[in-house]
Amino acid sequence: MNNREVIWGEMDRLTKAGLSQLGYTELELERAAELTYQINQRKSKEDVVIPAHVYQRAEILYGVADFVGDSLKLSRLCAESPAKKIVFCGVRFMAETAKILSPDKEVFLPALEAGCSLADSITREEICKLKSEYPGVPVVSYINTTAEVKAESDVIVTSANASKILQALFQKHDRIIFLPDEWMGRNLARELNKKVGEELIIHNGKCIVHEGFDPGAVEHYRRQYPGVKILAHTECSPALVAAVDFAGGTGDMLKYIKNTSASSYMLVTECGLGDMARAEFPDRHFIPMCRLCPYMKATDLAHVLKTLETPSSEQRIELPPELIRAARRPLDRMFELST
Ligand code: SF4
């Protein structure tokens, strides 16, 4: 088989995986195929695994990822994988979480600019200040936090298990600190019937993607698309969450689509989830109302190939052993409380 035939074969594979449904042109498919082929060749010769968050580019999800999911699923699968090397297609706090859970593995973040506005919204100093203002009050941190902030927390949660874990903790505590996401904190307080600032102390962190959605648009879209089911991520504002049909994490949103049959769906979150839903459920109709996360979209196939071929020291995630031990405790507590 000559090189052209190899690339055509790879284009065919990407088409069948769902990329053509997402509007990729022939030229885009060909460019992607040249890179996915090289990445997969390289992968087959190395003990490496590529996890990818659902907000990553579709050519990563369907072209090179070994597993795809939300933060919780990815952190679990990374820890279970026997591979010695992880090339994490996501953002920095996710790659750090993989390193905390798998300290003996080499973990790489392909794009150095892949940060997160939520993770950047609170520092170790700020969490320590909160702890001294509210001595003895348990600190529950969203997984979108740096390793230093995790190390100062009592329990980590994800959007999939935050409600369940907070409910369990409120059985024993009158007051809990939740950080850093203000909107998620307010949504949880409303769901659990707790007073913000008294029973649930929150921080002012925001996701730059989810804070930008306008709750007023929901009624407009309902009039324009009768029967539409509107789903929102719990990082959206309480006003928007109150106006939609379902709110949850990315995994829960996909489950909702699987278990319902509406005339159309609108996913109010990062655009990657809509791409994935269109590829996974080709018989359903999706109306766009999404935003791109510049951090999540920072990683492309060229970064992944470069990381496999010649990784730089900056791409390697290094954390001191004592920080790994301290940040591991609240993650283990999450696994205990969410089973
Ligand atoms: S979508 Fe929001 S929470 Fe997720 S990585 Fe981007 S900024 Fe962070």
**Helix proportion range:** 40-55%
CATH topology of the largest domain: Rossmann fold
CATH superfamily of the largest domain: NadA-like
Average of pLDDT: 94
Q: How many helices does DSSP assign?
A: 15
Domain module count: 3
| Total number of strands | 14
**Distinct small-molecule ligands in the complex:** iron/sulfur cluster
Form type: globular
Low-confidence runs of at least 5 consecutive residues: none
Structural class: alpha/beta
Radius of gyration: 20 Å
Gap from first CA to last CA = 50 Å
| CATH architecture annotation of the largest domain | 3-Layer(aba) Sandwich
Outline the biggest β-sheet. 5 strands, parallel
Question: In the CATH hierarchy, what is the class of the largest domain?
Answer: Alpha Beta
Order of helices and strands: HHEEHEHEHEHEHEHEHEHEHEHEHEEHH
Q: What share of the residues does DSSP label as strand, in percent?
A: 5-15%
Report on the architecture of this protein.
The protein is an alpha/beta fold. It folds into 3 domains: 3-116 and 297-309, Rossmann fold; 119-206, NadA-like (Rossmann fold), CATH 3.40.50.10800; 210-292, NadA-like (Rossmann fold). It has helices at residues 3-17, 26-44, 58-63, 71-80, 92-101, 124-133, 147-151, 162-170, 182-192, 216-224, 238-243, 250-258, 271-280, 301-309, 321-338; strands spanning 48-49, 51-53, 67-69, 85-87, 106-108, 139-142, 155-157, 176-179, 200-202, 228-233, 246-248, 264-270, 286-287, 290-291. Strands 10, 11, 12, 13 and 14 form a 5-stranded parallel β-sheet that branches. It has a 4-stranded parallel β-sheet with strand order 7-6-8-9. A 3-stranded parallel β-sheet has the order 1-4-5, sandwiched between helices. Strand 6, helix 7 (147-151) and strand 7 (155-157) form a beta-alpha-beta unit. The model has no long low-confidence stretch (mean pLDDT 94). The structure holds iron/sulfur cluster. Iron/sulfur cluster is lined by residues 91, 116-118, 144, 207-209, 270, 293, 295-296.
